[in-house]
Design goal:
seven-stranded mixed beta sheet, five-stranded parallel beta sheet
């Protein structure tokens, strides 16, 4: 049965049929199997590079005669890192130090003599695989990095019938980095990697793979029966690592305040998990990249589903202009009839964003209004953009606004904030 973590393939290229029998050596194959390795003879030399791309062997074992006679065809140095195998030359029993230097100068990574025992052969291969594994790890997260992760996805696509891929990135990571700096951002990534490992290790999973694509992008691969449970546990437990990543005041508030051009102030939520997924039952995928991109598209589709914008603006001409502009941008925009009916209109229309002109409200009257609107934030992720000439962004943001936009402002600034809110999670 083919597992989620593929067997480490050692592809052997030789011209002499007698030499090819190494791949049928029972003792060697048995010992290799215990180390999750498999020996297989390569096809013709002319097919070698396409075979490497298809099978993605970890080690390419080449007989010295073939290697020296066909250096151009056996040179793998120009393969992409994601599929380049370790080149091990199988040399004659009497090979000299000069022979070894010649092999290495011409593209070999290491040399092994034909006279070694089966045990030494397997131990040598296992040592190579350990070194490769270390090189394939991300230094920050200590997880398999991009190349290894895409190799696993290719294995799933080509060899497995039942798999699911979960793509995870960290919500509000960019604003966190701006506020707390690069060093603290790296700490957040490292803590997230450890958190994901802990969650997955604590679950009763048959098999899984956890990889790191770079920065705040992680990938989990499991079977289709497990992925929903994984998503639930990750979302449920992520908040447990947040307290040590924030200043106490920010953690207690549940948000940070960031600055934008034109004196705009934004309330940014704490870090959270942003999750998208796809599986083998969705469609036939063209590549590992295609799989990851589908996960990301699925996240974006969920984010963009609600394009409704409700506008409460006293200036009638500007309100119509704003409504028309938002509609042209693909939003479902609507003007509110007035403050008295606002709660019922929000409940009925269920907008993603509420543009609230609050010059007449002031912070004191805005607080009770936001208290009534709070349940809509919980129910369907309502975001409130407050446009006002009343100073004091801290009060408005503390009482429920997500964006403070001081008047006067230009239309493009407001549109930019509406676009951003559409992609912002509750």
């Amino acid at each position: 049965m083919v597992g989620l973590i593929p067997v480490n393939l050692i592809l052997f290229l030789a011209k002499d049929e007698k030499k090819k029998t190494i791949c049928s050596n029972e003792l060697l194959c048995e010992m290799a199997s215990k180390e999750n390795m498999e020996f297989r003879n390569a096809k013709e030399l002319v097919d070698l590079k396409s075979e490497i791309r298809e099978l993605r062997p970890e080690i390419l074992l080449i007989d010295e005669e073939v290697f020296l006679e066909n250096i151009d065809n056996t040179d793998t140095r120009y393969f992409s890192n994601s599929c380049r195998p370790f080149v091990l030359v199988l040399a004659s029993s009497g090979h000299t130090k000069e022979d070894t230097f010649r092999f290495l100068r011409n593209g070999a990574d290491d040399v092994i003599g034909r006279d070694v025992s089966e045990e030494e052969f397997v131990l040598k291969a296992a040592s190579i695989l350990r070194r490769k594994s270390i090189l394939e790890m991300d230094n920050l997260s200590n997880l398999p990095a991009k190349n290894k992760t895409y190799s696993i996805l290719e294995h799933c696509r080509n060899n497995l019938n039942d798999w699911a891929v979960i793509h995870i990135d960290i919500l509000n990571f960019q604003s966190y980095g701006v506020m707390y700096g690069v060093s603290q951002s790296d700490k957040a990534i490292s803590r997230t990697a450890k958190f994901l490992q802990k969650v997955l290790n604590g679950m009763d999973l048959n098999e899984y793979f956890l990889g790191h694509l770079g920065r705040d992008n992680f990938v989990v691969v499991a079977d289709t029966n497990s992925f929903e449970k994984i998503i639930f546990e990750v979302k449920r437990n992520f908040k447990t690592i947040l307290e040590n990543l924030y200043k106490k005041v920010d953690f207690d508030n549940g948000y940070i305040i960031s600055s934008a051009p034109n004196k705009v102030r934004r309330k940014e939520g704490l870090l959270d998990m942003n999750i998208g997924y796809c599986s083998s039952i969705d469609r036939n995928f063209l590549s590992g990249t295609d799989i990851v991109e589908q996960c990301v598209r699925n996240k974006m589709n969920a984010e963009l589903k609600n394009k409704r914008v409700l506008i409460l603006e006293d200036d009638e001409d500007f309100a119509y202009l704003l409504e028309e502009t938002l509609v042209r941008e693909g939003n479902d925009a609507k003007l509110a009839s007035g403050l008295d009916n606002l709660i019922s209109e929000v409940e009925e229309f269920q907008p993603r964003s509420l543009i609230l002109e609050a010059s007449k409200l002031g912070p004191q009257n805005f607080q009770p209004l936001c208290s009534k609107l709070q349940r809509f934030k919980d129910e369907f992720g309502l975001k409130i953009l407050i446009a006002t000439n009343v100073p004091g962004h801290q009060n408005f943001l503390a009482h429920g606004a997500d964006v403070y936009l001081p008047k006067p402002y230009d239309l493009e600034t407001l549109l930019k904030e509406v676009r951003r809110l559409r992609h912002t999670h509750a």
